[in-house]
Amino acid sequence: MTPSTAVQPKQQAAPIATKQAAPVPPKQAAPVTPALANLVDQMQAIYDSIARRAFEIFNDNGSNDGHDLDDWLQAEAEKLHPVHIDVVDAGDSLKVRAEVPGFAAEDLNVTVEPDCLTIAGKREAKQEKENEGNVVYSERCADEILRVIDLPTNVDTTKVTATLKDGVLELDMPKAAPPKAIKVEPKTA
Question: 68-79 and 34-60 helices cross at what angle (nearest 10)?
Fold first, then answer.
C-alpha cells in the first residue's frame, strides 16, 4: 500500500458534554381557601353531571362509537346555561350585569373576592310530559350556571350590593382603595 491510500483507523468521537439543568424546586401550592374549595366542588359536580348526561346521550343513540365529542357538547349545552355578562368600569366602582333568566335569588350563589367574581346557580328541573304525538323539536334552558370572572381591578368586598330583577343580576362593586405607601424611619439600636 502506498502511504496515500492507507486506511486510517477511525477515531472515536469524544463524548459530548451535556449541561444538566439544576433541579427545579417544586412550586408551592396556593393555600386552599373555603371559597376555592367550594368552587372546586361545584366544578366537579357539574363535570360529573355533564359526563352522566353525555353517557345517556351515547346510550340513547345506540351506543355508536365515534360521536364522543358531539355527545359531550350536547350534554354540556343541556346542562350549562351561558351567562351573558357586561362589566363596566364606572370610575369609582365596577358595575356587573348578568343575565340569569329563570333563576330566583335563592337559586343563585354569588361570591365576590377582591379580584374575582363567581356566579353559580342551580334550579330544580320542571319537566312536563305530554302524550300528544311525537315530539318534532324540543328546546330547554339549562338548570345550572357557573361563571367565574377575573375582575380588572380589586374591589371592596364589604360594600358590594346585588339585585335580581326580571332575570337580570346587577352588582355594584366599589373599587378598593389603592394601598398607600408609608415612610418608615429606621431607628438605630
Answer: 120
What lies within 8 Å, CB to CB, of 169 at 6+ separation is 96, 97, 98, 99, 100, 108, 110, 119, 162, 163
Location of C-alpha cell 346585588? 162
Residue-wise pLDDT for 116-175, tens only, equals: 898 888 877 655 555 566 776 665 666 778 888 889 999 999 999 999 999 899 999 999
CB 110 within 8 A of CB 162: yes
CA dist 177 to 44, 96, 120, 173, 174, Å?
A: 35, 19, 27, 12, 9
C-alpha cell at 136: 318534532
Q: What is the pLDDT of residue 47?
A: 82
Name, of 3-12, 51-60, 62-71, 140-149, the range with top average pLDDT. 51-60
Residue 83 has which C-alpha cell?
A: 351567562
CATH of 83-124+142-180, one of 3.40.109.10, 2.60.40.790, 1.10.260.40, 1.10.340.30: 2.60.40.790
